Structures are given as C-alpha cells and as structure tokens.
Amino acid sequence: MNNAAIDRELPVNYNDKNGGIVNQKRFYVFIIMILTVILIIFIISGITVSRRYRELSRKYTALSEKYSEKQSDLITDTEIEYFKRKGIEDPLRQLKDDLMNRDELIETSGQLGGTMGFHDRDAVNILNRYWVYAPFDDGHVQGYMILEYQFKGDSVLWNVIESKTDI
Predict the structure, then answer these.
(1) Statement: residue 3 has pLDDT above 90
(2) Whole-angstrom Cα distance, residue 109 to residue 116?
(3) In terms of Cα–Cα distance, which of 127, 139, 39 is closest to 91?
(4) How deeply is 12 buried, as exposed, middle or buried, from its count of CB atoms within 10 A (0-12, 13-18, 19+)?
(5) In Å, how far are 50, 116, 160, 166 from 137, measured between CA atoms?
(6) Residue 112 exposure: Cα atoms within 13 Å on the Cβ side
(7) pTM of the model
(8) Which of 20, 60, 114, 117 could form a disulfide with 103 if both were Cys (CB 3.0 to 4.6 A apart)?
(9) Is residue 144 within 8 Å of 153, Cβ to Cβ?
C-alpha cells in the first residue's frame, strides 16, 4: 500500500505526508496507552467495588436475619430481660422449641391423613411476656392459636386462649 492510499484511509497532517503518518502512528499508540490505563483503573476499581460489595452483603445478611428474627416477635427487650433476670437465658428460643413439641395443644384433627402440628418455627410470634401467637397446620388445613404461657423452672406451662381453623 503506498502513502497516497494511507492518506486517503487515515487523514494526517497534510504539510508533511511522511511525518504525518509517523505522527498518526504515535497518536494511535498514545490513545491505546491511555485506554490501557483507563482499563487498568476500571479493573482495580472493579476489584475494590467487588470487595466492598461482599463486605456490605455480609453485613446486610446479618442485619436482615437479626431484624427478621426480632420482627416476628413483638416481645420487648425489657420483657426479655425480665425472663433473663429469672434465670431463663434465651426465653424466645426456649418458648419456640417447647411449642414445636407440643402438638397435643391442638384440638383440631388432621385432614386427609395429615397431622396437625406447629411446623413453622419462624411463624410463631412471642407477643409479650404472657401470650404467643402460633399458626399450625396439617399440610391441608391452616389454624391459628393464641396461647398463654408461664415458665415453671425449666419447663413451660401452656394454656390455649383461642384456636381457630380455616375449615
């Protein structure tokens, strides 16, 4: 390819055709170097942003788990401290664990071979230091219960206040 063909394809400094081609090559090398530097900056920024994203994601997960656990229970921190002063270290866990094993509190029989039970621990809401809201089901029929509770030593005494089912 001769210089005239190059000049038509790539406009250059028309005062000096040979110097113009050299200047144009230098210009393109300069542009490629600038783009390479910009690319490196984006890569470094991306790595930094990625690290920051992972860090914030971990914090968000921890906070959302804490919030969702607290959100489901309406009992106040003061009421929780009341139980702790009485020697019950984790009243929420103890109440929910005990209730999950107390299917005999449900007076409704299961339908279509199902067994009524408190199957969703996260749906149980400790309302205050006296009452609990607890949904139950057998896989076919849903029910809802308000219970009164009282700690007696290491055990929990339950009293059904109200119970309704969707049938």
Answers:
(1) no
(2) 7
(3) 127
(4) buried
(5) 44, 5, 16, 10
(6) 6
(7) 0.58
(8) 117
(9) no
Residues 142, 140: Cα–Cα separation, whole Å: 7
**What does each C-alpha distance from 80 to 71, 75, 102, 103 come to in angstroms?**
14, 7, 22, 25
With tokens 């896989």, the residue in question is 139
Residue 158 is classified by DSSP as E
Pairing of strands 125-126, 131-137: antiparallel
Share of the chain above pLDDT 90, in %: 47
For residue 58, give both structure tokens: 């971990």
CA distances, 146 to each of 82, 91, 103, 140, 156 (Å)? 21, 18, 14, 20, 15
Question: Residue 152: which pLDDT band, with cuts at 50, 70 and 90?
Answer: very high
Mean pLDDT of 145-162: 94
35, 65, 106 from 124: Cα distances, Å: 58, 16, 14
